[in-house]
Write a structure and sequence with these properties.
Layout (H helix, E strand, L loop, with lengths): L1 E9 L7 E6 L4 E16 L2 E9 L5 E10 L16 E3 L12 E10 L5 H8 L5 H9 L3 E3 L15 E5 L3
Parallel strand pairs: 1-6, 1-7
Antiparallel strand pairs: 2-3, 3-4, 4-5, 7-9, 8-9
The structure holds zinc ion.
GO molecular function: RNA binding
Keywords: RNA-binding
Length: 166
């Protein structure tokens, strides 16, 4: 039996975040909107994460979000992400066809509260929430190798294991 592995980032669908601040290019206080684009910059052993905001005239402002240490100066952070995991893009639905395979979805990041049943219905082609609830109850969908409930909230590093056969 083959195991197909996916990774999933759960982001809040919300109105864009805005910040009122002075735009140096416009020379006045204006409203910057979060483009939701994130950038990582390495500086020595530290990796900085920035959110890119734009003013109405399209001038950029980088808001510093996070600083984290790289494991070593010789490790490229990109290589820390396992390549066997296919990322599921935002708004993308995956198709679970083969009955000979199991499907594993790893939660790489979460922003906010996401229910297991709703999240799977949003990302699996042709699977209604009703079908997903039945599969969770039948033990065909496991969370971290355990039986779970449809309303279970997802956390980072959670592993969802899906068996397709009826
Ligand atoms: Zn500006």
């Amino acid at each position: 039996m083959e195991n197909q592995q996916y990774s999933l980032v759960l982001r809040k669908k919300q109105e864009a975040d805005t910040v009122k601040k002075q735009c140096k290019m416009c020379g006045k206080v204006t409203t910057f909107t979060d483009t939701t684009i994130r950038r990582h910059n390495a500086n020595g052993k530290n990796i900085y994460q920035f959110a890119i905001y734009k003013c109405p005239k399209n001038h950029s402002w980088n808001k510093k979000l996070d600083i984290y240490k790289s494991f070593s100066e010789h490790v490229d952070p990109a290589t820390l992400v396992s390549t066997e995991f296919k990322p599921i893009e935002e708004g993308e639905k995956i198709t679970l066809r083969s009955e000979k395979e199991t499907f594993e979805i790893n939660i790489s990041a979460t922003e906010g509260n996401f229910r297991l049943d709703r999240t799977l219905a949003d990302h699996i082609e042709g699977w209604s929430r009703t079908k997903i609830v039945q599969k969770i109850k039948a033990g065909k969908i496991l969370l971290n190798d355990c039986l779970t409930k449809p309303s279970q909230k997802l956390s980072v590093h959670d592993k969802i294991l899906i068996t397709v056969n009826e």
